[in-house]
Automatic annotation (TrEMBL):
<feature type="transmembrane region" description="Helical">
    <location>
        <begin position="159"/>
        <end position="178"/>
    </location>
</feature>
<feature type="transmembrane region" description="Helical">
    <location>
        <begin position="230"/>
        <end position="250"/>
    </location>
</feature>
<protein>
    <submittedName>
        <fullName>Polysaccharide transporter, PST family</fullName>
    </submittedName>
</protein>
<keyword id="KW-1133">Transmembrane helix</keyword>
<feature type="transmembrane region" description="Helical">
    <location>
        <begin position="394"/>
        <end position="419"/>
    </location>
</feature>
<dbReference type="Pfam" id="PF01943">
    <property type="entry name" value="Polysacc_synt"/>
</dbReference>
<dbReference type="InterPro" id="IPR044550">
    <property type="entry name" value="WzxE"/>
</dbReference>
<feature type="transmembrane region" description="Helical">
    <location>
        <begin position="309"/>
        <end position="332"/>
    </location>
</feature>
<feature type="transmembrane region" description="Helical">
    <location>
        <begin position="88"/>
        <end position="111"/>
    </location>
</feature>
<keyword id="KW-0472">Membrane</keyword>
<keyword id="KW-0812">Transmembrane</keyword>
<feature type="transmembrane region" description="Helical">
    <location>
        <begin position="184"/>
        <end position="204"/>
    </location>
</feature>
<feature type="transmembrane region" description="Helical">
    <location>
        <begin position="131"/>
        <end position="152"/>
    </location>
</feature>
<dbReference type="GO" id="GO:0005886">
    <property type="term" value="C:plasma membrane"/>
</dbReference>
<dbReference type="GO" id="GO:0009246">
    <property type="term" value="P:enterobacterial common antigen biosynthetic process"/>
</dbReference>
<keyword id="KW-1003">Cell membrane</keyword>
<dbReference type="InterPro" id="IPR002797">
    <property type="entry name" value="Polysacc_synth"/>
</dbReference>
Length: 424
């Protein structure tokens, strides 16, 4: 009984509970948007949505210079030194805004080029990239604001920002998809994230007057040097990762057909929903803890609190998802997507392995282990690409999710070996 009381009163339990409510909200929103996409755009439209999402993921990292995890770490370290905090925020803000504006110009004036590269010659959605060029600076600054809040340890406010942002995204998606079908779905993807700025600014401004402390005189290039390792790590993971997924999806379209690519995107979309439980709690709770850990014993304690407290709950959850897969497909999508059922086992198995490796991967960011991270990521991405190509030839679309599971297994083994001293 005392153990249960201790768990109930722990910060991790409170944050996990609030995080779970936030994820339930996001999944609920996902049910609506997924159903709309299934009904109004179909498997082929789902494939196009997947391509744009992958492009957006890469663009987000480039526009923020991959600083997101580094911002969390350094704000957590210097939050009590007001002068250093001012210099840090000013430096990062001006750097990100400059990069975002340059990228916006590139997107706007070369919209036709990006349309061809992302959607192919059969679709004309140039306006989507022009809209993205206008939304990008707002989105980049919102990422900075949320990262600052996360670094300050305000986990609850970070979760509230994400929850409100998701609700706003739902409204935008519903209106645009109903009105413009596939074009509306694509447009909602680029507009919704920019609206997060206003929510983030409201919450951050209560903690720290960000725009009042920003000054060009406070710019300190030394912080850019310190963040450069995070930039390299994020560029490899968050830029190359989505690009590899984009290449794999295009291979599916060429080898099989666009509907098969849509089925894989559907499975990936479902996976994204339940993986939120792990990824969000890692970002808002475990990353700051790992960044602040002083020795291997403290790091070991953080690792095992995840493996004992979070991972078992996740495994239990995905087991339920597997047995409810037919219901989930019919609820979220339509009977046209029933073929996705054959992808569940390998996707879920691979995601359990991925969840087990995620916290170890976050240690790369927390301790700035740049070279080790880049090598492991390049090996993983290369393995996934070649395995997916080979296994797709043998097993069709199932081969792609099999490749993901095998890749996750190899990646976990590499991390367990590398961090063995912090685990055992």
């Amino acid at each position: 009984m005392e153990v249960l009381k201790k768990i109930y009163k722990s910060q991790l339990f409170k944050i996990s509970s609030l995080n779970s409510l936030s994820i339930i909200l996001k999944i609920g929103i996902g049910l609506v948007t997924s159903k709309l996409l299934a009904v109004f755009v179909g498997p082929s439209g789902m494939a196009l949505v997947g391509n744009l999402r992958n492009f957006m993921s890469s663009l987000e990292t480039v526009s923020t210079l991959g600083f997101q995890n580094g911002i969390v770490k350094y704000v957590a370290e210097i939050e009590k030194d007001k002068l250093q905090l001012q210099k840090f925020i000013s430096t990062v803000f001006m750097s990100l805004l400059l990069v975002a504006l340059l990228l916006s110009g590139f997107l706007y004036f070369f919209a036709a080029f990006w349309n061809y590269r992302i959607f192919g010659s059969h679709f004309e959605y140039d306006f989507v990239f022009k809209a993205l060029s206008l939304a990008l600076p707002w989105y980049a600054v919102s990422i900075l604001l949320v990262s600052v809040l996360n670094g300050l340890g305000n986990f609850k406010k970070v979760i509230w920002i994400n929850s409100i942002g998701n609700a706003i995204g739902l409204l935008v998606s519903v209106v645009l998809i109903l009105e413009y079908r596939t074009f509306g779905a694509l447009l909602s993807i680029v507009i919704s994230p920019a609206l997060l700025f206003f929510v983030a600014f409201y919450f951050v401004n209560k903690e720290i007057a960000v725009f009042k402390i920003i000054s060009s005189a406070a710019f300190d290039f030394s912080f850019i040097k310190k963040l450069s390792s995070y930039s390299l790590m994020a560029l490899v993971s968050s830029v190359l990762g989505p690009l590899v997924f984009l290449m794999v999806r295009n291979n599916i379209i060429q080898t099989l057909d666009i509907d098969q690519a849509g089925y894989w995107e559907t499975m990936t979309r479902i996976s994204t929903y339940y993986m939120l439980f792990v990824s969000t709690i890692l970002t808002v709770y475990f990353l700051p803890k790992l960044s602040a850990s002083k020795d291997s014993q403290e790091t070991k304690s953080i690792f095992w609190s995840f493996y004992k407290g979070i991972l078992p709950v996740f495994i239990f959850g995905v087991t339920i998802i597997y047995f409810a897969r037919f219901f989930i497909i019919k609820l979220l999508f339509t009977n046209e997507f029933l073929q996705v059922e054959s992808l569940f086992f390998w996707q879920l198995f691979g995601d359990v392995l991925k969840a087990a490796s995620l916290i170890l991967g976050y240690q790369f960011f927390a301790k700035r282990l740049t070279i080790a991270f880049i090598v492991s990521e390049l090996v993983s991405l290369g393995l996934f690409y070649f395995l997916s190509d080979y296994l797709m030839g043998l097993f069709g679309i199932q081969g792609v999710v099999m490749a993901q599971a095998l890749d996750n297994f190899v990646y976990l083994l590499i991390l367990l070996l590398y961090f063995r001293k912090s685990l055992f």
